[in-house]
Specification:
Length: about 475
């Protein structure tokens, strides 16, 4: 049965700022859980500032940031009140590292604070933040920034976030937190740690924010049971995601097999045992093609607290997608030509990645082949051991010779796309590179993108978050 204190609908935390504060706030105001994407919010912050902070939203949120000196340092370095021309390059941004600079920490903490603050502004609804487990370097300061803004829930997938509940406990208590960094070639008895000390960051006495709920994104009952026995800290529920959901998917269980079109083949082993998950006693939400009223009812009858829906919200008026991308995808959906390819190699993470076929985007092979490889954001890099005290970073999407020089395998570079730059371009914050080329988008959505035009009312060319919520809860309300 539905627990009254929990939402039936959790809006997915999509892409880089596709699930931005506007979308999350809209959904939360409707009594459901809005979720902001926590991916790359440091670079989103600095690029919005360089674009002039249109509407003054960052300045309004930053006025409430509780750690002295941070806002002034960031604004002095990045804020351009006059904005920038369309051909002007964005300033370079420090990339993640084992021991980040104070500048990078400020951007990570403040960027997450601003996004969550704006999402929570003016209402009492639940707001969550979604982070990718694979992107480890900014995780702890990102969590602290979101917690300083009062985030209600943390959602994490694209890996197994086993250590995160304990990290949340530490941060809420104002204590130093650490996260084991996955380092290729590291000895088991000599691990590398990412560390963050709230007291040091706050200048002496730590601010102790409330501890948010934690919902790992899982694909099996085995993981659910593992989390309930987790000695690292408490989990508060699960998002159970199937392979039709957008973004990064869990790889198929067993040996990887590809279809004739080159997509991973999922089978019976990839269907989660919902009865076993329900036996944990924790609430769970089902994700992956649940954006239909009857499927919401089906989820509730299966014992779920509700559903997580992403793609349907991604093309609303409130989402952060470039309006031109939304218009083109909606037109394709309306015409019955919208297609998604589950690309097994596009993402340098190694996780299958959903890609929408869109003209003049990185989904097209000829566009991908023409792009000059560059890695200047670095969120999806992998750490590798140089010696017992030092790590290096490499990305299968960076220039091939650079990757090989760092010990990478050339086979791993084939078909890899620069997801970082492409996702920034998808929200109209793409970089103009030194060679004058403008980064092009890579649009990711779930299989439901083929049918998102169903939300358009007769004669309309756009729809709202409220339209989606009303549609999804139609049969629930009627019962």
């Amino acid at each position: 049965m539905q627990r009254p204190e929990l939402p039936i609908i959790i809006q997915g935390g999509m892409g880089v700022a596709v699930s931005d504060w506007r979308l999350a706030r809209s959904v939360s105001r409707l009594g459901q859980m809005g979720v902001v994407s926590g991916t790359a919010l440091d670079v989103v912050l600095v690029r919005r500032l360089q674009a002039g902070d249109i509407g003054g939203h960052i300045r309004r949120a930053a006025a409430h940031f509780p750690v002295p000196g941070v806002v002034k340092r960031v604004f002095d370095k990045y804020f351009n009140p006059d904005g920038r021309s369309l051909t002007e390059r964005f300033k370079s941004h420090p990339m993640g590292r084992l021991k980040p600079s104070r500048n990078l920490l400020d951007l990570q903490v403040l960027g997450n604070f601003v996004e969550v603050f704006l999402a929570k502004e003016g209402h009492n609804g639940m707001v969550g933040i979604n982070l990718l487990t694979k992107i480890q370097a900014p995780t702890i300061p990102s969590l602290y920034g979101a917690m300083l803004a009062g985030v209600d829930a943390v959602l994490m997938g694209a890996g197994i976030p086993k250590e995160i509940p304990g990290v949340l406990d530490k941060l809420a208590a104002g204590l130093p937190a650490k996260l084991k960094l996955d380092v290729k070639g590291a000895a088991r008895d000599k691990p590398f740690w990412l560390r963050f000390d709230p007291a040091e960051y706050c200048g002496g006495e730590a601010i102790k924010p409330k501890r948010p709920k934690f919902f790992p994104i899982i694909s099996s009952a085995v993981l659910a049971k593992m989390f309930t026995k987790n000695e690292e800290g408490q989990v508060d529920g699960f998002i159970v995601e199937g392979p039709t959901a957008g973004g990064h998917n869990a790889p198929p269980r067993g040996k990887l097999q590809l279809s004739e079109s080159g997509e991973p083949i999922y089978g019976a082993k990839d269907v989660a045992d919902l009865e076993a998950i329900a036996e944990t006693g924790l609430p769970f939400w089902l994700a992956g093609s649940y954006a239909e009223p009857e499927r919401v009812v089906e989820a509730l009858e299966a014992g779920a607290a509700g559903v997580q829906v992403g793609t349907a919200f991604a093309y609303t008026e409130e989402s952060g997608f470039d309006p031109e991308i939304k218009a083109r995808v909606l037109a394709k959906s309306k015409a019955g030509t919208a297609e998604v390819f589950t690309d097994p190699v596009a993402s340098p993470t190694g996780f299958p990645f959903k890609v929408v076929s869109v003209e003049d985007s990185m989904s097209q092979e000829n566009v991908y082949e023409k792009r000059e490889r560059v890695c200047d954001l670095g969120y999806l890099r992998t750490a590798y051991r140089i010696d017992d005290d030092k790590v290096g970073w490499r990305c299968a999407s960076e220039p091939v010779q650079d990757f090989l020089r760092k010990g990478g395998d050339e086979a791993d570079t084939v078909g890899r796309k620069c997801v970082c730059n492409a996702l920034m371009a998808s929200i109209d914050l793409g970089q103009t590179q030194k060679n004058g080329e403008k980064e092009l988008p890579l649009v990711t959505s779930g299989d439901d993108v083929a049918n998102v035009a169903r939300f358009l009312k007769p004669g309309a060319d756009s729809y709202s978050a409220a339209d989606v919520v009303d549609y999804l809860l139609r049969d629930v309300v009627a019962q």
